[in-house]
Known about the structure:
Helix content: 25-40%
CATH class: Alpha Beta
Order of helices and strands: HEEHEHEHEHEEH
Low-confidence stretches: none
Distance between the termini: 47 Å
CATH architecture: 3-Layer(aba) Sandwich
CATH superfamily: Glycerol-3-phosphate (1)-acyltransferase
Mean pLDDT: 94
Number of strands: 7
Strand content: 15-25%
Structural class: alpha/beta
Amino acid sequence: xxxxxxxxxxxxxxxxxxxxxxxxxxxxxxxxxxxxxxxxxxxxxxxxxxxxxxxxxxxxxxxxxxxxxxxxxxxxxxxxxxxxxxxxxxxxxxxxxxxxxxxxxxxxxxxxxxxxxxxxxxxxxxxxxxxxxxxxxxxxxxxxxxxxxxxxxxxxxxxxxxxxxxxxxxxxxxxxxxxxxxxxxxxxxxxxxxxxxxxxxxxxxxx
Length: 207
């Protein structure tokens, strides 16, 4: 497993850069507010349909949650995009012994109330038009490695252009209270209920 690295100057530069390219490439980034406790860490579960997803969640955290951002990415992307490690990225190598180590590391990050951990439960990119979000089994190992005192936040993101030349990204956020000993199936069901409700809201938009 490859862990995040800290460099204040690099972090500040790329925080500025991500903010700049989002404002440049999108007409708007829209998201709602949801309940969360500043004294709780956050496990942010999001659908993964574009190259932008990690940067958009980074931006939402910078503007709204204001936690120490962490995200699990593939070892390939960790090595290929050099600056991601300075933005809180840590790597997972699928189908390896080190994958368990990575999940345990992510779970322990959630024991610090100042942290936010972003996970894409699909494990790879899928179309933004899928009917259901699939969940990889490793998520429950992550949860079991934590003290379970974090807040679940679900994020469902959709892109539309409407009357604009540039895309509008809309992210629907929802907090969820998981049971102390919850199951992967229960989390998946709760997330997909939020995803379907959000998709209906998005498709009902008229301009």
